[in-house]
Specification:
The protein is of the alpha/beta class. It folds into two domains: 4-80, OB fold (Dihydrolipoamide Acetyltransferase, E2P) (Beta Barrel); 119-375. It is built from twelve helices and 19 strands. A six-stranded parallel sheet has the order 11-10-9-12-8-13, with helices on both faces. Strands 1-2-3-5-4 form a five-stranded mixed beta barrel. A hairpin with a 7-residue loop joins strand 6 (96-98) and strand 7 (106-108). Helix 4 crosses helix 11. The protein is globular.
């Protein structure tokens, strides 16, 4: 259920492309104890949807995630500005609706639809020609994968295909904004119900093809937006879609690379070493070949555990998985150059280097697989 709140903007806290974070003082509600009007909350406004609310302006909020105390989505969202409706956008082409049949659905121009200047290219496109495609479970792997790519191939063009298992608006990700600003990320393609990237695409397949044929990517990273969903069950988590992404890469002639989700400090046993998310997605759900990069971890005990788990994964997987040893020399130093904070499940690089090293290894392997003929194309 959606829990509504109303309030007044008291300050703009920070902004990045597509989003502005506000401080909002809530109105009191009948029957609430205490001075509810004094409660101040963080609220996010997506500027393409509601514009930029001004100080002193009243706003209507969706406070459901905030009131539940969720992590990634634990803030309020501006639904409407009742006293200052944003102006209509300039008329334009595009008829692909995302966040369909919700009150905040968007009509956007998809890179693959008929009105797109790229439609002719994508109508004929059917091959990734060996393009390395790194697939990761968590959004937090993205900057680490890019650090690994740049460690091996500093000039590589990297595109991010954002799937719709987590946040739908690309503007929710400050990592994407920072990586793009720093020049680490050439373009973001939002696929399925995700929206707000540099290009929209209807499916993961056309997102991958657009990354290759429109963006000119040397490497593609596929991962959901921020906000992984998990239930503590074997199959009930959004990262199971990693298998689907690798299937798409394979059927289009890409080079699938399965980035492992690894942790040395997660308190949940199912996520220690290689997370059960990776073991299930790559060991049970995946039906096509993929490389599984592995690198030496600073903790000798954790390194031994991960290697045993990799051996078990390869032995039991339904698909043909190939373990690839990636030299660890320089990976930590490469990670330290990230233009955005490295954090996963509330832990940073110093607290838990394993998840970032595993993701960087996947990026380094992808960079080593770049076809020099393709990367030199005009």
């Amino acid at each position: 259920m959606m829990q509504w709140r109303a309030g007044t903007v008291v300050a703009q806290r920070r902004s990045w492309p597509g989003a502005v974070e506000l401080a909002v003082t809530l109105d009191g509600r009948p029957g609430e104890d205490g001075d509810a009007a004094s409660v101040q909350v963080r609220a996010l406004a997506y500027t393409a949807m509601v514009g930029v609310p001004a100080k002193g302006e009243r706003v209507l909020l969706n406070a459901s995630a905030l009131l539940r105390g969720l992590g990634t989505g634990g803030l309020a969202f501006v639904v409407a500005r009742p006293d200052a409706l944003p102006a209509d956008p300039e008329p334009g082409v595009g008829h692909i609706v995302k966040a369909r049949y919700t009150p905040l659905q968007q009509m956007l121009l998809a890179v693959d639809e008929q009105d797109s200047p790229h439609h002719r290219v994508l109508a004929e496109a059917d091959d990734l020609a060996g393009l390395p495609v790194v697939v990761a479970d968590l959004h937090s792997a993205l900057p680490a994968v890019l650090a690994g790519v740049r460690h091996v191939a500093p000039g590589a063009t990297v595109a991010y295909v954002m799937t719709d298992g987590g946040a739908l608006p690309a503007a929710f990700s400050r990592a994407v904004a920072g990586l793009t600003e720093a020049g680490w990320l050439a373009a973001t393609l939002t696929v399925g119900q995700a929206f707000g990237g540099d290009h929209e695409a209807v499916t993961t397949h056309t997102g991958l093809l657009a990354a290759r044929h429109v963006v000119g990517a040397d490497v593609v990273v596929v991962a959901q937006g921020p906000g992984n969903v998990g239930t503590g069950t074997r199959w009930g988590y959004s990262g199971v879609a990693c298998a689907d992404a690798l299937h798409a890469a394979d059927v289009l002639g890409g080079h699938g690379i399965a980035s492992l989700r690894v942790s040395g400090t997660d308190r949940r046993e199912r996520h220690l070493g290689i997370s059960h998310h990776s073991r299930t997605a790559y060991g049970r759900a995946l039906l096509t070949p993929a490389d599984v990069p592995v690198t030496a971890l600073p903790d000798a005990g954790l390194d031994a555990l991960v290697r045993r788990q990799v051996a078990d994964l390869l032995a039991s997987a339904r698909a043909t998985l190939t373990a690839v040893e990636v030299p660890s020399d320089g990976l930590l130093e490469a990670l330290a150059t990230s233009p955005v904070p490295l954090t996963t499940m509330g832990r940073g690089l110093e607290e838990d280097p394993a998840p970032f090293l595993a993701a960087a290894a996947a990026g380094a392997h992808a960079a080593a697989c770049i076809d020099p003929v393709l990367s030199a194309r005009p």
